[in-house]
Queue: 2 jobs
Job 1
Amino acid sequence: MSEGNGSAPGGRATIRISGLTKSFGDQTVVDIDELVLGAKPVEGLIGPNGAGKTTLMRLIMRSTRADTGTVVLDDGSSEVALSKLAPHRIASLGVVKTNQVTQDFAGLTIWDSLLLAVAQRHDERPHRIYRERHVVEAYGEEIQGYLDTFEFSEPGGFAHSAGEKKLLDLIRCLLLEPKILLLDEPTAGLSEEVTTQVIEMLRTKVAEGMSVIIVEHDLDVIWGFSDVVHFMAEGDVILEGDPDYIRAHSTVVEKYLGSGHV
Amino acid sequence: MSAVWDYLFGSPAFLIFGTYTLMMIVGLGILLHLQLGVTGIGNFGVAGFWGAGLYTFGILQVHYDVGFWLALLAATAAGGVLGAIAGWVIADLDDDGVLAATLAVATIVFLAIESEKDFTGGRVGLGTIDFPFDIGERTDLAWLAILFGVTGLLLWYARRVHRSPYGRLLIATGTNEPLARSLRKPVKRTKVGIMALTSAGMGALGGLYGPIVHFLFPTQLTVAITVSVITALVLGGQQRPWGAFIGAVLTVGLFDIAIKLYVPLPREVLEHAFPVTKQIIFGALLIFVLLFRPLGILGRMRRERHVKGLSRV
Ligand SMILES: Nc1ncnc2c1ncn2[C@@H]1O[C@H](COP(=O)(O)OP(=O)(O)OP(=O)(O)O)[C@@H](O)[C@H]1O
Ligand SMILES: [Mg+2]
């Protein structure tokens, strides 16, 4: 594949957020003044349940519409206001997100799902009814590579368990070759072994230039994987720093680590 | 040989007309399959898109002496434009909204045709429309052969769509829009596109129906035709390209061909009780299928077969 890979000339692409708010009813769920995500290769986003982590990611992807505020993608040479784009355009620009709540296409097999992810716009036109061969030839090997790495009970059929669907969700996103991958609890529900495999895979991709922003309640993953950690509570990122700093910070201990929540 | 031919195809005009109807229902059913069974768009206004084509064709031929091909092209375009508009309207609606909106489209077409008497003749009718060629007695049969060809082409296209990246995009759009968007797929454009394309097909079928009836009346495009198409498709299997064909043979084939031809019903019954009974049975059948076998006789789409065959696409 050609586009969407690697870091920009001026460094990593970042997401700059300003004045972003979102309320459901009279509950303010996200209220962020200024925040930059993606400056480091791997950034953790942690915080108690209901802190607004998922909502923040959905606001960036515009799968939820913000009440106010702007989100800008800055790849070092140009800036794009993501907050003005349709969700499919955001994904085209290389900002991609996995889902906390398992999402799948009922009726599409594992191969279908992955071929869908890689197929380009011009492959999917109504008159291109003989295009399948090309898509399989162009991307089949890459897909097979993922299926060799991750084990599915029926690779030629459908994803069955929640864990398999979660994996499939991740592979679909990786196939898009994102610049910035937002991961919303990617290892929840996965076995320890598969979790290790996933992190391994992500490390490889990061080494190739992809940036990761990861929400995860499994803090071993966060401390071991992140370069920087954002701590979010009550809709705002209130602390940022390297993992050791965040881990030892009294506010974090009080609001999150000490609560017996983990 | 000729005696057998005459017995089966020659004499009874019923057979030919019934088979025209059958082919129309199959063709519309295949197009509805692409909308409903593949993309998940429940179009309850089939008669409207088809009727837009039928009347565009009729008006151009009767009032403006437009030639066959141009009139057919215009009929196709009329269906397509109406489909694009409908697709744009329904793109953000939920399933119930889609049903209501498409039914509304059909109703608007019907009312427009009924009221714009200068063009359409209203209830008095619009005619006459003739076949674009005349080869004597066998003209009817030739037209039937053309319809067979067109329906076959639609079937072939639908089957190809299932095996193409485009079909996969349609299925994805139909089953999980937010997820499709997150994978860069332009959901709204996809829906508008498939509605325009398939409704253009419906418009073209409408145009081809013109010469068959010679005279157009608004009553030809009531909800009855939509119900017939939906019944056939749902009974046969909405997710499968052959579904409409199987379903249509079992419904229209049975009622409009077999019974009319080979069961000696009195003319009285045939003209009055029969069509009503047919609609009631179709309705009941539809409910029965939806309750006990929602995916119809052929059942669900078989994608895993496609995967096994990927090496042979
Ligand atoms: N669509 C919605 N409608 C109403 N309230 C919502 C909606 N989505 C989220 N919320 C509320 O917003 C708050 C933040 O939710 P969010 O899912 O962003 O939290 P989170 O930090 O991801 O939590 P978790 O760690 O449990 O995943 C919660 O109180 C939640 O109930
Ligand atoms: Mg969450």
Job 2
Amino acid sequence: MNKLPLIIKREYLAKVRNKSFIVMTFLSPILIVGIALLISYLTQLNNSEKKVIAVLNDSSYFSDDFVTSSETTFVMFKNMTLDEAKVATKNLDHYGLLYIPNDTTLQLISENAYFYSKESPGALTLRGVENIFENQVRKQKLLNFGISPSNFEEINSTYQIKLSTFDGEENVLGIGEIKAIIGGAFGYLIMMYIVIYGGFVMRSVIEEKPSRIVEIIISSVKPFELMMGKIIGTSLAGITQFAIWIGASAILFLIFMLIFDLDTSVFIDGGLGEVMEQGTDLSLDQKNVLQLYTKEIFDIPWFLLISFFLVYFILGYFIYSSIYAAIGASVDNETDTQQFIFPIILPLMLAMYVGFFSVLSNPHGPIAVGFSLFPLTSPIVMMMRLPGGIGDGGVAYWQLFLSIIILLLTFMSIVWLAAKIYRVGILMYGKKPTYKDLFKWLKY
Amino acid sequence: MNNILVTDQVTKRYGKNIALNKVSLEIPENTIYGLLGPNGAGKTTLIRIINQITYPDSGTVLFNGAPLSQKHIHQIGYMPEERGLYKNMKVGEQALYLAQLKGLSRKDAHTKLKFWFEKLGIGDWWGKKIQELSKGMAQKIQFIVTVLHEPKLLIFDEPFSGFDPINANIIKDEILQLKKNGTSIIFSTHRMESVAELCDHIALIHESEKILDGRLSDIKRTFKNNIFELAVEVQEPKQFLAELKSNFTVLTTRYDEREQQLFFAVQLISKDSKTLLHYVSTRANICSFVERIPSTNEIFIRTIQNKQRSK
């Protein structure tokens, strides 16, 4: 008789009825949404506070350049010495004092200008001031070459090339990034899931040791069945939790949005928002661009992507969680797990870093290919490459299949090895094993 | 008589260590079989092999005449030395789960559990969690889940360790009742005296090897060495002893002045106790006259000594 369903059911119920699990499940969305809202609120608050910068301009330039912007207000000091200006700035509690001395050339003036402030100024503020100098110096130099400011404005424009595929479809800039973000999100999801629920599997194995129930259970079922039951039961609980998190977060988010009438653009600033701004710079019809994006996003092979996500997710998760189970079986308490956890986290971290630094810039380069074949990193790295499509211009077919075959073989051998360690480990009490011990257990 | 379990030349190695070396046992049906030996002798390994938690490197195990296989799991009940229950689970739910793992249907398990809970007077514990129970209470549950599926063979590893005397007695009675109903039982322990009185058969395991097995009464008979212990009433113990020593080999003596009783042990050359009894009875009042039956412990130590001498 197959007892796996019984074990899965027990592990699932034990997990979802656990008080801390319930608390985490319902508290996390509130926390996540709360923190997100807090950040958005603080960002708005921070932006609304204007910085006041005093300017003491002794030179004959820059008379019109200090224009008050949304972030910065410039106050012009006149007929003052530098020391007086400093005192005044301090007394008025302004953000800082920009001192522009008088000299023969603009070059010398800019070289001797100083910005005084209580603490070192924010990078953005400083950049704004520096831009003013850069512009002025450039204008002056061009003027020396005989180019008038109006001519300068004319040539001072940006240019962006229009993109198209060979099929004649118009392409938009930034879609590569969007795809990478989607891939990254899938990869990140796999990593987070492994770290959180792999840890749960490990703890659930460790818990059976002090309670001394394990020998009773494995006199009824095979240790392998128990291990698999634990992994599957825990992951089902994990999926339940994830689903609740996503659902609850979305609902809470909408509710808060409606109540507080907050600006959503804060959250997508780094991603889509920026891309869209670039899009408008193309001076194409904005609607048209949006349509193109929508089309591109629809063109991402979602069905394939999600199918392969499931393949990589399941195989990757089983590989890691059986290692977690084997670790849990070999130790008596959680503090002893540290030495074994690090080697597990390492490939996961590596996969994320390689993913973000190498795959995003060159999704089909040798490093990306290598890591998407290596079984401990392939679930994450391959997911980052896949949104680019399969076949022409995307992941080569042979790479995809080779990667899945390697992953499958690794899956089988790791689960087999882990089950061996698990089988011996769960009956060992009171010993902190070394790697040597684990290796010996494989031969029992 | 049928054998419920036979092991033939069972050997198990853990790396370089040998845990069991060619152990052959025959465990007759419907008996209480004591698997005795010091810690680390290999008893638990043997039991784990019987429970198919681990497998022998060589040798065979027969259950009821057939090679041991997964289908026999449901006919074996096992209470390991390292035992416990899920702390966060409710008693009833937990018992149901373990019973279902032993192949009972949920309904059957429920009926049987109700019966046992009533029998041991713990009917109202159903909804409690193990962590709310005392250790003794938890052990009753432990016992119930071991026997619930009515196995043909019950295995208890260190059965009474951790049980308080009252609970130990309740469990002992239940086990004897099970034996009466036809169950075969294996006790494994290093505290030999704790179960020796219950066992029909014993096997002594020492350093991975079986050094002795058989019916307990047969073994005791072969280990008897004609020592008799007496208590007599005498006024002049010194004179009595001097005379006694000239006729017999006297081993130990102790005189209780208040009761004027002399306790002593005599080693005879043959089983002939009549001469001794006659000799003593003509000289003193006999309070007791018994043959010294070797304890399991003694048998064990002597067997090991013999073995070492013969090496």
